[in-house]
Amino acid sequence: MRGFLLLISALLLVSCAALPVIAPPGGKAEKPLVCPSPYCTGKYRFIHALEVRLAGQAQTVMVGVTLIDPAARTISCALVSTEGLTFFEAAQGPDGLVVSRALPPFDSGDFARNMMDDIGLIFLAPQEAPVQKGVLAGGDAVCRYKGPVGWIDVGTGRDGRIRIRRYSKRGGLERSVTLAGGANPYSTIELHSSGLIEYELIMTLIESEAVPNGPLPGDQIKGPRS
Fold first, then answer.
1. CATH of the domain at 102
2. Which of 8, 67, 127, 168 suits a disulfide with 76, CB 3.0-4.6 Å?
3. Residues in contact with 225: Cβ distance below 8 Å, sequence separation at least 6, in sequence order
4. Whole-angstrom distance, CA of residue 171 vs CA of residue 14
5. What CA–CA distance (Å, rounded) separates 162 from 204?
C-alpha cells in the first residue's frame, strides 16, 4: 500500500513538473497581476470563416456559427458550407451533448465531443479561481486554473494577443489558442491541436452580435438541409 501511494505521489510530481514554470510577478512596484478575460459576459452569436490545416496545408474552408450563453454554460454551433449546406449541428450544456445533424465525415468518432470542448475552451471562462499567477519564461503574464480534466493557462503576450493553453493532468499540452489583441479578441482565432493527429483551425470573424435574453435561438444556426 505504501509503495502504491509513493507511486501516485511520484506521478503527481511528474505532472506538476511537466507544466511550464510560472515565476512570481515583479517587485513591489509592479501592479497586481490581473488575469486576462477575453470571454463574453452575455449571450453572443459569432459567425467565422473557418480554415482547417493539416501539415500546414489548408484542407477545408467553411463557415462556423456559434451561439454562446456563458451564464448557462451553453454552446450551440453549426458548420455550414460556403453554399449554405449544414454539415454539422450540435448543442452542449450542463445536461450533456446533443447532436442534431452530422454528415460524413463529421459523424465519425469523437468529433462532436472534441469540437464542443474546443469551442468551450475558446469562449467560456474557467469556472474555477486561478491557482497561480505570474510570468512565463517568455515574458507572458499568465493565470493558471485547475480544471476537472487538467490545467488551463490564460495569458497575455508582449504582442498584446491572448493565449489559452490546455494541459492534461500529467502536464502534456493538448490545445493552444491564440486570440487577436485589441478591442475584439475574437476577430481572429488560431487553435492548434497537439496529439496523434495535429491540426490547426484558423477562424476569421465575419459577424458578431448580442443575443436577446431567452433560450438560444437554434434556428439561427441552421442552413439548408439538403
1. 2.50.20
2. 67
3. 86, 101
4. 8
5. 16
Residue 55 lies in a domain: yes
Q: In what side-by-side order are the strands of the sheet with 151-156?
A: 96-102, 86-93, 74-80, 57-69, 44-54, 199-210, 188-193, 173-179, 162-167, 151-156, 141-146, 132-135
pTM of the model: 0.82
Tell me the per-residue pLDDT of 105-146, one tens digit each, with 9 for 90 and over: 888 778 899 899 999 999 999 998 999 999 998 888 999 999
Domain count, the chain: 1
β-sheet bridge partners, residue 129:
none
Contacts of 47 (CB under 8 A, 6+ apart): 63, 64, 65, 66, 205, 206, 207, 208
- d(C-alpha 165, C-alpha 193), whole Å: 10
